[in-house]
Every structure is written in structure tokens, then in C-alpha cells.
């Protein structure tokens, strides 16, 4: 029998860092001597990103197909004679990638020079300045000079390529992100590249402007100042803006957004990446959903009708107005029984607001019926927009007075018209303005208490009107149609004397013996989490930036 | 011994474009034999053995290219014929299409059979009005005689051929831009990989061959690979070749000679020598406008793939552009640069921006507004375009810029020094 052989020495590892082991669905490669393991099918650019290395790029966008046209992501790959574009090269087992060699750097300088030779360099008057990839990359990768001494190519400037999008063709670098967005995401196909060479220009087809429900995303993904959002043009320099992460309250999708504020005003809303909700996009309606805040007349402070019925509304102090509201409700209950009390509560309100509506109005004040009106428009589309335009239908069903139900609201308003309901509390809704009831019928009420952020027709008709915070002025949780709870954040100081709805309801409730302390929205939410099984284990902190899914039975 | 033309054997004879004339001269015999006696695999081997290299410009071995098709048969395979001949100085395919369409068509059917393709697309340059009419008639004749359509010559093999007219863009001669255009889209080159043999027309495996290449396949089928491989300079430069002579020669035109014919023989003997006795040869572009220029001192070269690479240029489309001493090399390059700036598809940054930049610098130089640094700037910009673009169009302009400036640097510097073109008054071209 042969003697057992001595275990052989393993061959000495090759110099330099070793490739890490990779599973069957993975590949391992070296990027700038950094070992990286990625899933098969990952591109070099994405692999570098996962390793914390930025490969600069213009045309690549994670939400769009690969175009490979800007050439900014050219990197060196061992054994390949030419530089390769990182965005279109699949990471392969054992690949050795270098992104910082002299050759790569000089090529980046060249690409920057090419991109800028026909660019107008009008940064001082460009809205993109401060968040422009040309500026960022020229500073980081450019040579800082140009050898171009010629007349630049001229193109149309400041032209309305769509209802809300302005196009400056001279700033455009033809990365075609906008074209691909319209082809692949909105699927509306308005944009295309026309003409050739350095006269190539993005454009629309005759009679078909860029006017789809998602057109604003082309502005977001435009890496330069070529596409700008008309309502935002020249409104603020972007470096003054503060982005506050929040959720859109425009429909039951609840897209993750950033509210960009300056001088206590929302100047624009942009999508915030959330792969579970809206990926990279939002709709134009959501983008402009801050407009009513400045367009509609606000309720500045609490208002109450003079004691004699029919007199004009007068400003009142908060305590006085709340006392008056409680007194009106009590008097009505005394005179006509608690069956003559009812409430209309909005599913646009947050979980915290709705929880306190239940606690204060139903439990403390003993209002037997609360109706939640649905707001439905059109159909669900292929991308984000939901026909259910209330952002918190699911929250209302789980933690509030119930899911939106047209029948119940109709019943209540019929009873108002018939005089069976004598006192009505309306929170965040405008049944008069929405045509659900007429002024005469509403006028028959002995008590109309309205909590809302603006002077809606219903609020104007109220015996007591209490000013609440508008969108972006208060925080709270919305639960979208898929059951994902997300936080809205306060980006602005409340207008004048406005208060968060939940706090107004707390104060009203206290006048009926509501016990809880409810110091903050977060504390209100903690009570929801403790009492409503669907929210068990959740908290504002736990929801974080991307939210969490509630447990539905 | 005078060379007996093979590719141009019929061209020029009366009625050469008709199927009757083609059949009378022994046409479609190769196809008949192959369909009867051979198999697709044997046909591929035959073409490999012939040493045939693509006549479109890159000179890649045709049989090897066919071999890149995936072995699976889950998708249809397509053959696209690149008849989008647009390289300045090149007009050989046009002659074949107009004068001997059935020689090309037979090669198409043979090649389609070899790669097991059932539908072939003939992508013809939009401006070839005459060629398009002639070729469509040839296709109709071939259908009528049973060379196209179902069950060709009783072999059980079916092939349909679709004639598709381009819209007149040079870039659509680039094979992936051709595919995009054929699919009805803007003619923009695709990112490679994947290569067309794997993902081509409509996402299916596709072979793209040049018109002249396919005409050569007819010859191989007629007389065999062994015979074919003796023509030219075996083993790597075999077969007959069409050379397009233009510029300052007495008899510009298409001439056939074996691969490896001396360049000066083409100029002096076939094209009748230089146009004007008082102006000696200055330079030659041997392979179409996108190839590097050869100064007169380097024109003692053989016209084949490998000899021209050794000489610092390429055979390309074998378009020989002859320039005599009256030619201004700044003007000549400007003329080319204007073409490439006009034809750049505008997709990728270096080519889109660089081509226009070349024109602007060269216009200034020619107009006497050049600066000393412009000469090196031209080369540097070309170096930054080369190798960094999606398709070979980048090289197609970078190589001429690099080689014209390097070869005739003194002339460029003189334009700067003298604030204008020293040859402006004598130039034969305008």
C-alpha cells in the first residue's frame, strides 16, 4: 500500500488582493483593487456603486434602459484593448476593472470637453445650477479649461416642449434619458431625437407636446438644465432649498417625495426613490400638490359666529372657539339627543388625526355616526396614479372611523337636510364645495363645527371654524393602498394660528373628558400601535424613510 | 497574361441584368449543384476553405462569421445584405447591383442556404434608384423561375427576399444601425456585445454581408473553394476584388483584379495614369474615405488586406482616391470632415461633438485664421474620438484626421504661417 502522500502546499496566492469566493448566482471581480461580489447580470457601473465607487455617468439611469451614449463611464477592463462603458458591460467572474487610471482620467477630461464645447455655460441664469451633473463632473473630472475657440452650435432656447416643461436645446447633452422615460415608463412616446451630428436635438412630433401625467420626471432625470419645470423656473436657487422627506397625499399610492422648502414655502416636490412604492417617479399632479397651499385662502385663526345666529363669523381665541364648539355640541345633544350629532371625517388626514377623531368625537363627545367620504376620479393607471384620491383610505379603515363609504356620508347629509341631524362636525372635508349638500340644507344645522386648513365653502358656513395645518405643515402617517405605512413630515411652520388636526381634536375631546395626554403625533401613533393590531410594533422611528407594511388580518 | 474578370464577367454586356442573359452565361448552376449535392454545413466549410474575407471594409473571414451563429434553432435566422454603399469613393456594389444583379442574388440564396435562413433582407441605399429598380426586377424574375420562394428548385428549401430601401444615411451602412433602420427605427448603431450573430434583426441571430462578398460566394459555389483559394495572394488574401478608382486619374471607374494587385498598377495601367502630366502623385487613400492616407512615397504597395495594414492603412472598401500635387491636404480633409460631421448620427458624445469641431478648425485653417496650436489640437481631438465611440464611425473620421495631419504636417503649419491656403489658386477641385 502506498504511503499516504503529504498534503501538498497550496500554490501561493497571486500578488495583489485575492478574488473573494462567489456563489453560483454571483460573480466576483476586482474594481480598483477592491474585491466585489455581485449578482450575475450586474453591470460594472452597478458593481462599482455597490462597492462604494462612483463611476461618473450621464445617460445611465437605474430606472431606464441602457443607452451607452454619453461615454462618461468608460473604464479600463483588463484584456480589453479599448476602454469599455461601465453601464453596458456585464461584470464577469475574475474581471479586473480600473476606474482611476491615467487613461480613464484623460478620457473623462475629453468627454467633459466634448460635452461643453457646444454648451452655453449659462450657469448664472440656469435653474439647474447647483444640482447640475455638468458642473459636478467638470469640477471632479474635467480639465477646467476648453480649447474650443469656435462659434457654438445654436439651438432654440426657452421653448415650451410641454404644458409644464421648458426646453433649452443648447444646454442639452442628448443623453436621451427623457426620451427613454417617455418610451419606457410613461409609455407616451412624445419625445425623440431629431436631426444628426452636433445638430441633433430632442423634440416632439407635430401637435403632440410633452404633456403626459408624468412629464415632470423628465425634468428630474435631465442631468443638466435642458428641461426645467415651468412652475419652479427662477423661483429659488437650489442650494437654498432644504429637502424634507415625506409622502405624497395626492392619491392612495402615497409616493415617497422630497418637499423642497425655502422661506417657509414649498417650492417644489420631487420623487424620492422608494422601490416599494414609486420607484423613481411621481405624477405631475403630486408634483404640484403644494400649489393649493399658496393659492387657496387660508383660515388664519379660529373663527366663531357671534352668539346670535346668522351674524358674521368673527375671529376668536383658540380656547374661546373650542369652548364654543363643545358648548354647541352639548346643547344640541341635550335638546335633540345624541342621535342628532354626526361627523364627516376625511381619509386625507393622517392615522394620528383619524385616531383622535375616533377618540375625541366618537368616544368622548359621543357622536354616534362618523362618515368618511370617498374621493374617486378616473381609473388606476399603468404606473402610479390611483383612482382613489384619498391617501389614507386604508389608515381610516384600520385605525380611524372606517373606510370611505359614500352611502354612510349620503345618509348623514340626508339627515342634515331632513333636520334629523342638528349638529355636524366636519374634519378636513368640504361637503358644500364638493356638492354633496346645498347651502340651504347646511343652514338648517344648529351647530356646524369645521376643522380645515382653508376657507372652504363649508368652513365659511360654520358656526365654529378651527384652522388646521395644511400639507407639509404637520407630521403623521399615511397607509397606502398596498398597506404600506409612510411618514409625512413637517417641512413648514404652520400658517398663522393653524394647529395639527389631531391636536385640535385632542383639545375638543378634553372638553368631553378625553383622558390621554397625546403630547406629540409620534405619541398618538404609539397608542395606535399599542391598540390596533395592524400597527403592532410600528413607530415613527420604525417607519424610517421608506415606511413599513401594516399587518392586515 | 491578361486577367479574366470573374465578378465583372457579365457587366457591360447588353441585357446583363436580365435573368435570361445570366442563365445563358451559365448562371444559377452553382446554386443548382449546391442544392442538389451539398448541405448547409458543407457550404459553410466550402466558404471557410476559400479564404473569402468580407468585402464591406473590415475584411473579416466570411465563413468564420457565419460560424458565430448559435447552434440552437429556437429563433429564425436572418441574412441582411448590406447594399447601403455610401463610403465616399466607393461605387463597386452599385455596379454589381445594376449590371449583374443575379450574380449577387445567386450568392444571397447560396449564403442564406448555408446559414439556414428563410428570410433575407436586401438593404439598399436609398439614392440607388436605378439599382433598386433593377434589383427588384431581378428578384421578381428569380421568384418566377423558382430560385426564390417555396421549395427552390425542388430542394425543399424556402427563401423569401425582401428589398428594403434606406433613407440615405451613411451610418446605416454600419451593420447594427442597418438593423435598427430595417426595423423601422432611427439608424443608430447598437452597443456591442451582443453581436448581430447572436442578437440581430428583431432580436434574432443575423448575418450581415456585403454585396460583393455574396457575389464571391457565387463564384465559390460554381468552381469550388480550391480553385478560388488560388486567386490573389493565398492563403489570407484570396479571390478577385473590385477596386474603385477616383480622383486625379484619367479613367476613373471600377476595375477588377485579384487581391494583391499593386496599387500603382491600378493607377498607371488600369485607370490610365494621372490626370495631368504636370502634376505628380501626392497621395492615395487606398480603401475609402475613412482609411488612413498614404503619401506618394508609400504607394508602392499591394492592394490586399494584410499588405495595406503593413503599410499603415487598410483595404477598407478598396476605394482608391488619387490626389495629385494640386491637392491641398487641409482642403481635402475639410471636405471629408464636412461629410462626417453631416453623417454622424449624433448618438454618442465624442463623435457628435468631435466631428463638428474638426470642421470648424479646418475651416479656419483653410480661411487663413489658423493658430499654431490648431495642428496639434486636430490630432488630439482625433485621439480622443478614436476608440471611445459606440461604432467605428469614430475611427472613420479620427484616422483620416490623424494621418492627414501627420503625413502632411508641414502643409498644415504653412496654412497657419501664410494665413491661408498656398494652393488655393491652383487647386483643381473646388
Topology:
The complex is a heterodimer of chains A (553) and B (430).
Chain A: E1 26-31, E2 34-39, H1 44-50, E3 74-77, E4 84-85, E5 96-98, H2 102-117, H3 133-141, E6 159-160, E7 165-167, H4 177-185, E8 191-194, E9 201-204, H5 216-221, E10 227-229, E11 242-247, E12 256-261, E13 266-271, H6 284-287, H7 291-295, E14 303-305, E15 313-315, H8 318-336, E16 341-345, H9 351-364, E17 369-371, H10 393-399, H11 406-417, E18 423-427, H12 439-443, E19 447-452, H13 457-460, E20 464-467, E21 476-479, E22 484-488, H14 501-510, H15 521-531, H16 540-543, E23 548-549
Parallel strand pairs in A: 1-5, 16-17, 16-18, 18-19, 19-20
Antiparallel strand pairs in A: 1-2, 3-4, 3-5, 6-7, 7-10, 8-9, 11-12, 12-13, 14-15, 14-20, 21-22, 22-23
Chain B: H1 19-24, H2 29-37, H3 40-50, H4 62-66, E1 78-83, H5 92-99, H6 101-114, E2 119-124, H7 129-144, E3 160-165, H8 175-182, E4 206-210, H9 211-223, H10 225-228, E5 232-233, E6 237-238, E7 240-247, E8 253-258, E9 261-262, H11 263-270, E10 281-285, E11 294-295, E12 302-303, H12 305-310, E13 319-324, H13 329-343, H14 349-366, H15 373-385, H16 393-407, H17 409-417
Parallel strand pairs in B: 1-2, 1-4, 2-3, 7-13
Antiparallel strand pairs in B: 5-6, 7-8, 9-12, 10-11, 10-13
Helix pairs in contact in B: 2-6, 2-9, 3-6, 5-6, 5-7, 6-9, 13-14, 13-16, 14-15, 14-16, 15-16, 16-17
